[in-house]
Amino acid sequence: MLVDTHVHLNSKKFDHNLDEVIKRALDNKVETMIVVGFDKETNKRAIELAEKYPFIYATVGFHPTDAKKIKPTDYDLLVKQLNHKKVVGVGECGLDFYWDKDFIDEQIEVFKKQIELSIQFDKPLIIHMRDASEATYNVLSEYRNLKGIMHCYSGSPEMATNFLNLGLHISLGGPVTFKNAQIPKRVAEMVPFDRLLVETDAPYLSPHPFRGKTNEPARVKLVAEEIARLRNLPFSEVAKQTSKNAYKLFNIKEKI
Ligand code: NI
């Protein structure tokens, strides 16, 4: 059993081979996939997929790089979608100072609005953070009772401790398998086992030996295998524990 906690099957990149990609995921024991939305179009598509497949769940949100385009009325639709029983999270949202340094205030405002929705609906945040560790921590630390995931976490082990202390989970993806990725490997070793998740972020960030190629959810297995190696545990134990963590966090009835 494996849960891919972050996959964009709602991306146009999968329009031509979605059935094959899903079949390969199921064949590799990926029993649940969380399809993450990031704008109006992909939020809608994530819900369509969740309605079609029993093993797919959706999250809805606005990506920080679109913050300047978000209007107050856009949240009305998000609220409506958050009432859907297969919408299990808010995001992806967060801060990205790598792609966009010109609209930091707007990014923070859009992020805060989604943190509030996460608390209101008691559904976890899917947090995107790029070149913005401290700013992200500062925004999040204004809140109590947070639930959420630092998605494809790429920060330092020290910052990971800070996010864990806020009650958040850490999710690792393809980069932990890269040969020179010393920092994600250290993070993989230090996160408490009950707060660790795995993901692909497909079609992006394919793990070794597929680096640079279009990623797909079946490859979450490679991420879990690398974590098992680093933690000196059997693969089955990592698969079981990370799945259990995901079901609990997303409030999905565990498969037996
Ligand atoms: Ni993503």
The overall pLDDT, averaged over residues, is 97
User: Alpha-carbon distance between the termini?
Assistant: 9 Å
Query: Count of DSSP E strands?
Result: 8
Number of domains: 1
Q: How many H/I helices? A: 9
Say which CATH homologous superfamily is assigned: Metal-dependent hydrolases
The CATH architecture can be given as Alpha-Beta Barrel
Largest sheet: spatial strand order:
1-2-3-4-5-6-7-8
Low-confidence runs (pLDDT<50, min 5 residues)?
none
Category from helices, strands and their pairing? alpha/beta
Radius of gyration: 17 Å
Small molecules bound: nickel (II) ion
CATH topology: the name is: TIM Barrel
Question: What share of residues are in beta strands?
Answer: 15-25%
Q: What is the class in the CATH system? A: Alpha Beta
Q: Specify the helix fraction band.
A: 40-55%
Q: Please state the overall shape, judged from the principal axes of the Cα atoms.
A: globular
Note the run of SSEs as H and E. Answer: EHEHEHEHEHEHEHEHH
